[in-house]
Amino acid sequence: MKKKILIFIISYQASHRLKKVFDSIKLKKLKNYKVKILISDDNSTDDTLEIAKKIYKQNKSIVTLKNNKKRQNYGGNIKLCINYAIQKRFDYAVMVHGDGQYHPKYILPIIKKLEQNDSAAVCGSRMIHKSNALKGNMPLYKFVGNIFLTKLFNVVYSTKFTDCHSGYWIYNLKYINKNILLNLSNTFNFDNEMRINLIKKKLEIKEIPIRTIYGSERSSVHIIYALKFFFQTILKKFT
Questions:
Q1: Positive or negative, the Cα torsion across 105, 66, 19, 77?
Q2: Beta bridge mates, 208
Q3: Which of 1, 162, 195, 205 has its Cα between 20 and 30 A from that of 58?
Q4: In what order do the strands lie in the sheet with 169-172?
C-alpha cells in the first residue's frame, strides 16, 4: 500500500512567497505516495490568508486550509499540523516553511531517507557541506553560531549532528504521538525540544544535505533563540 504523506506548509506573513513555495511542490515526483497538502496560516495580518484561499480553491482535491484565529507561534502551529496528521492517520508528515527558506525540492529525498532507515525523523542539514552554507549566503554570525551550538549539543547528548538548527523536518508518525507534543513549547525552540525528546527516547534522527535561502530576519530574534538553545540544551539533559 502507498504511504500516506501530509506536506504541511506553516505560514506567517508569507504572502510574497507562499504561492511560489506551493508551486515548487512537484507532485508528479511523489506519485508513489498518497499526498495531501495542509496550509496552516498562523493569523497573518498581511494578505497571506487570501493567497492561501486562492491556492485552496484551485486545488481542493489535494489541499486543506487551516487558519489559526489566534496566533499559535512557530511551535504551536507545528503541533497543530502534526496532530492533524495523526488524527487523519498519515504515515509521515513533512514540514515546509511558507517563507521559502527551505526548498520543496528536498521533499522526495527526505522521504527516501526516512524510509531507508525507518527513523523517527529526518532533518535537512545546511552544514554537511559547510562551504555550501556560505555560498548560499548564510550570514557569518549564523554560520559560526551554528557550529558552536551544534558542537555543544553533540557533546551534551553524545550525538553526531551537523546542524541542530534546521527547520526542515519529516516526522515518522509511527513514533511521534500526541503525548510527545504535549511536552514541547510553542516557541522557535520547538525543533530543539523535539530533537532532545526523541534522543531521550532513544529514537533515531537522520540528516540529509540541503541548501537554504536567507532573508532579512532580525538578529535580535537569533540572539534570543541562541540563548534559549544554549541553556535548554544543558538543562534538559538533567530533567
A1: negative
A2: 124
A3: 1
A4: 63-67, 34-41, 4-11, 92-97, 169-172, 121-125, 205-209
